[in-house]
Amino acid sequence: MRLLRTCFLSFAVAASTLAQAPAVRADEAAVREIVGKYVAAREKSDEHAIAALFTADADQLVSSGEWRKGRGEVVRGTLASSQSTGGTRTITVESVRFVGRDVALADGRYEIAGLAGGQARRMWTTLVVSRTPEGWRIAAIRNMLPAPPAPTAAR
């Protein structure tokens, strides 16, 4: 009887895990899609489309150290930055990790190509994306410049 109960419990857990897999894949696709929509809206300088992608309390810490707080400040800063630097932005999402049922971290390579002198700027970005009643929205962005390796301590 105990063996039968253990087998049934194992089967139930496995079936539950398999049933969740399509939902997780759909959520991951939705997170990747919101990042793509952000890049597209930013490239079009579409203020309303950008705003619609963020939570009201969103914030963004950019590589210059500027910290934009609140959706309005994020949108204004995003548009101003795109206008002042120019170039074409891309974010290549390399991983999506769910830290809760309704919160995900999307990590990716962020590049601005076509800057003055044909230069490209390569960074790393992390987006915190949360499920809201309106769907997945960006709650925070952290852009980081690569840093040289820290010096090793002499022994």
Form type? globular
What is the radius of gyration? 20 Å
Number of helices: 3
Largest sheet: 6 strands, mixed
The secondary-structure class comes to: alpha+beta
Multimerization status: single chain
Indicate the mean pLDDT.
Answer: 88
Helix content estimate: 40-55%
Question: Can you walk me through this structure?
Answer:
- There is one protein chain.
- With 155 residues, this protein is an alpha+beta fold.
- 41% of the residues lie in helices and 37% in strands.
- It is built from 3 helices and 6 strands.
- A 6-stranded mixed beta sheet has the order 2-1-6-5-4-3.
- The longest helix has 42 residues, at 2-43.
- It is globular and about 60 Å long.
- It starts with a helix and ends in an 11-residue tail after the last strand.
- Mean pLDDT is 88; it is low at 12-19.
Overview in brief:
Helices cover 41% and strands 37% of the residues.
